[in-house]
Amino acid sequence: MGFVIKPNINSSSFHLSGRSFFIRRRQKKKKKKTRRGEMAEDQKKKSCRFWIWALSSVVFRLILISFPGNLNLSSRPEVSTPLTSIRRLAEGYWLKQASMSPYAGSMYHGSPLLLSVLGPLTVQRIKGQPSHLLCSLVFVIADILSAMLLRGIGKKLQMAYGLNARLLGLLKSSRDKGILPCGDIAALVYLWNPFTIVSCVGLSTSPIENLAVILALFGAVTRRVPLAAFGLVIATHLSLYPATLTIPIVIILGYGLDAPPIKLFLQTRSVENEESSTPTVSKQPKLKQTTRLPFLWKTVAHFLFWVLLWSLCVLVLCAFSLNKYGGLDEMFKRTYGFILSIEDLSPNIGVFWYFFAEVFDFFRNFFLIVFHVNILFMLLPLAIRLKHRPCFLAFIYLAISSILKSYPSVGDSSLYLSLWALFVNELVDMKFSFFLFCGYLGISLLSPVMHNLWIWRGTGNANFYFGNAIGYACFQIVFVVESVSAMLNHDRALKRCINTNHGEVKN
Known about the structure:
This protein is mainly α. It contains 20 helices and no strands. The longest helix is centred in the first third of the chain and has 55 residues, at 11-65.
């Protein structure tokens, strides 16, 4: 006979093991909730800190505006240029009020639309308050809006950076603490940059131009095509040079935001294929995400349509504003013609004024073509090399334009420096950072000294101030070159990381 031995099953042991299982499960849920709560509290603290610093920058601007004469910053050649001076704008508005052309006095060379918006504010006075207070408040609002738009651009780029890093297998969590909040950093860099502050307090129209440029980039990043077209048209109308941003905006709308080269995603696919000899169904959507989307021609055509539409609207408004004063021909001659011909040779932080003051008139047209075409020669090679990073390409274009434009100011530098802060995650290993910081600081302090020795004291000459301008241009060139080099080195570092992962899979 066979005997069947039945195990002695204790029901209480099953009951205890079940209770312990549920207790562990509850503990895990509590830990997840506490982690989420800690992350939410951390984000709230960071946002509170950001708003404290942002509001502090606004209060600091208002304090500086309250000083009489705006600390005489509006007369500084580093702050105000023939295109951005509020004094010239006020004179143009006075001429228009006197039934004369705003361009008759050869002082105003800006947009007639900007004249219609800011002109009335230059006339109005508030008792007991400094002059041009309303214009100063407009510039403060423009700086705040620019900072908020930069923050929005940074959040989009940060999300794209984290997504690409996860697709390449370099990050495990979407909330990795190693990713810096580039949006908050860029916004605070813009608000607390001394160049931005002196441009705002010095009654320069640069904050309006910067707002238009940032608005165009924000519209492209968020894929709001009419907004991107509007910002590009207004920025080009105000200062001409932002027309170069058409290339990066088209790339953003056609291909998407900044990402590593597509070869790296293809290498990631090969690594994943080698990990499993037969591809499973669950990995198919992951493989599809590593491929770049095709060029979106419809979106680009939509953008070009809106560019033409907004351009037509701007031209109609300008023609209506200058109906009795020469029309559009007068505007093109006095604005864009003034920019390209470099008629005003008053000192500024650029190098054109000194060169064209010394060059013979016979060679003037030749060198005008050389200097202006120099910007165009750089557009295509940079677009080919940096087509996978269109936002960074826009930063490079703006920096080059700031170096080679006819009438530069510190407001132009404040724009590209804040855009540079959007790429702190990629440019963390940039070389000569401290050297460049000291260079910018030294040039900023020496420029007023050299100008004072030359113009007011008479103990120097034009070479004093021009030498300072050359040094400033050299530091900007080094800054651009090192930024591009750091970005390319970042892409190479990603490639090395993927190759090491590929080698580990083989082993």
